[in-house]
Write a structure and sequence with these properties.
This protein is α/β, with parallel strands linked by helices and 559 residues long. The chain folds into three domains: 3-253, 3-Layer(aba) Sandwich (Rossmann fold), CATH 3.40.50.12780; 257-325 and 328-442, Rossmann fold; 445-558, ANL, C-terminal domain (GMP Synthetase, Chain A, domain 3, 2-Layer Sandwich), CATH 3.30.300.30. The chain has 19 helices and 25 strands. The chain has an eight-stranded mixed β-sheet with strand order 2-1-10-9-11-12-13-14, with helices on both faces. Strands 15, 16, 18, 19 and 20 form a five-stranded antiparallel β-sheet that branches. Strands 4-3-5-6 form a four-stranded parallel β-sheet, sandwiched between helices. It is globular. The N and C termini lie far apart (70 Å).
């Protein structure tokens, strides 16, 4: 039985129990397991009518929705390879990906998405809107002689059968299609479900899972598949401007996050409490200081009193207002989480479980064990996975979660796969207990003229933490005599210099930042300086800002 057979069986067993809920325009719309299977069946019938050979690709271009879930299952259920695409990405980039994988058809969530593709690709394969796909059977789409009969089960899948091609973010070049097979996904779902069993141990209630991350990203998609297999209620946010209200109203038990959101939530609490100027602010401020001293093993009896007061009078209110009454933990991945932010949520009584992995590892290599979380680390390797350190402390991984190939790119595949080991490109370290810490990307290493190799991420995070109003910090310095920084956001020079003066003494001389440049314009997906999942395009930033960087170093040298 494949993972897809298992999901179909779980949806059938769910019967009239709601399994996916969509929050849209102030309303919540749910589908039961039985209703979702009916939608999957409609889409399968539509696809079967097209008589597309098994193993062909089908592009899926839409925002998160119940229909997206049904379409995804239907494509795989017909033995086709689903290629999920990011609906916010530039049409030219989407067309480039589709030309790379040559889909037999494109399923679009709305007319605008379809029209943008057609305008940029005159020879595009047939495109079909969700409105055309769902309900096709009731409109007589299968009434012609010889048309396939409706069916409500997936085709047989071998572990080696590719089920999806997920395009990487492309921080330093053209995006590559990561082919994942049924065996990769099946192993990962067993691991994720096992960790969630540990988190929800003793509960016989249906899990409530809030979700806002696009399904086209590997970690988000694995969470979707895991929820379907566990018969959880997956609650979809469809408007990011309503996250603050949707999260608590959904009353989730847990949900998947990126560090940027947790950082914003932390700052928002501080800002809101600063406006109150009452007893709550005093208790909160004293408790925060007490918590930090406790982490440094310097806590006093008075600190314990302030923390006890906050745990009764302040922290429960913050937790409930932010995330509702049922939260057991936050799950965080996609990028390193600032340890101070992780400790902050732990202070509020909210465990933050970190996950590390890449699309090529079926999204996950390590996961925090809910019963033992080590702040600043991303947990031990998941079941059945081997991890070790290679040259330059590169993390190397082997196991059933490792992708078989980049689509149609044998040379690129050969660069990262050797004797079954996947070379991640990430620098890391592991402690005696097997808990991993991610230092940064090897390709992001800054090599000074002195020959020193410097991972920029830890320094960037430390500076960002200390500069009020800063949105991004990016270090420069390849081939130079010292490091400099580009800081985006509404900040003044004095604040940046103060942060540098605070951080520099904690670093060896070659890691100290000697100059900086302020930019009001943020690096974003829209201006092409962030990838689709929010990672910095460092090479492009350096190229685009070449004149400013040169001037910064010239002025510093002259001073």
């Amino acid at each position: 039985m494949s993972f897809l057979d298992d999901i179909f069986a779980q949806l059938e067993a769910a019967g009239d129990t709601a399994v996916v809920q969509e929050l849209r325009d102030g309303k919540a719309v749910s589908v039961s397991g039985r209703e979702l299977l009916q939608m999957v069946n409609e889409a399968q019938v539509f696809l079967a009518e097209k008589q597309i050979p098994k193993g062909e690709r089908c592009a899926l271009l839409a925002h998160n929705s119940i229909r997206w879930v049904a379409m995804d299952l239907a494509i795989m259920g017909e033995g086709l390879i689903v290629v999920p695409l990011y609906a916010r990405q530039a049409a030219t980039e989407l067309v480039s990906m589709m030309k790379d994988c040559s889909p037999a058809l494109i399923c679009c969530g709305d007319e605008r998405l379809r029209d943008e593709i057609v305008q940029n690709w005159a020879e595009a394969p047939p495109q079909y809107l969700f409105d055309e796909i769902f309900g096709a059977a009731s409109r007589g789409a299968t009434s012609q002689p010889g048309a396939p009969a409706p069916h409500n089960h997936p085709v047989a899948l071998k572990d080696s059968d590719a089920v999806t091609i997920i395009y990487t973010s492309g921080t330093s070049g053209e995006a590559k299609g990561v082919a994942l097979n049924a065996g990769n996904v099946a192993h990962m779902l067993g691991c994720t479900s096992g960790r969630l069993d540990a988190l929800t141990e003793g509960s016989n209630q249906q899990d409530r899972v809030f979700h806002y991350l696009p399904f086209c990203f590997a970690g988000s998609w694995i969470m979707l598949m895991t929820c379907l297999m566990r018969r959880s209620l997956l609650i979809l946010n469809t408007d990011l401007t309503k996250l603050a209200s949707d999260m608590p109203s959904s009353a989730p038990n847990y949900f998947l996050n990126v560090p940027a959101l947790l950082e914003r939530m932390r700052k928002a609490v501080d800002e809101q409490l600063q406006k109150t100027e009452g007893v709550a602010l005093k208790i909160y401020s004293r408790a925060k200081s007490a918590w930090l001293r406790k982490q440094e093993k310097q806590g006093s009896l008075m600190d314990s009193i302030w923390l006890s007061l906050a745990n009764v009078a302040v922290f429960p209110t913050i937790r409930k207002k932010m995330m509702g009454p049922n939260l057991k933990a936050l799950i965080c991945g996609s990028a390193p989480l600032n340890v101070e932010t992780q400790l902050y949520f732990m202070m509020l009584g909210i465990p933050v479980l970190q996950v590390y992995g890449l699309t090529e590892t079926t999204a996950i290599c390590t996961m925090d064990d809910p019963r033992h979380v080590e702040p600043g680390r991303v947990g031990p390797a998941i079941k059945g996975i081997e991890m070790k350190l290679g040259e330059n402390d590169e993390i190397v991984v082997r196991g059933p979660n490792i992708f078989p190939e980049y689509w149609n790119r044998p040379a690129e595949t050969a660069k990262v796969l050797h004797d079954g080991w996947f070379y991640t490109g990430d620098q890391g370290e592991v402690d005696a207990a097997g808990n991993w810490r991610i230092i940064g990307r090897i390709k992001n290493l800054i090599i000074l003229g002195s020959g020193h190799n410097i991972p920029p991420e830890p320094i960037e995070e430390e500076l960002l933490e200390n500069i009020a109003g800063a949105q991004q910090v990016v270090l420069m310095g390849n081939g130079r005599g010292y490091l400099s920084a580009v800081v985006t956001g509404s900040v003044n020079r004095e604040a940046v210099q103060a942060a540098i003066d605070k951080v520099n003494p904690t670093l060896p001389h070659y890691k100290q930042v000697r100059a900086f440049y302020l930019s009001l314009e943020l690096f974003s997906i829209e201006n092409g300086l962030l990838t689709a999942n929010g990672k910095l395009k460092r090479d492009l930033i350096a190229t685009r800002m070449k004149a400013e960087i040169e001037e910064m170093y010239r002025v510093k040298a002259a001073s």
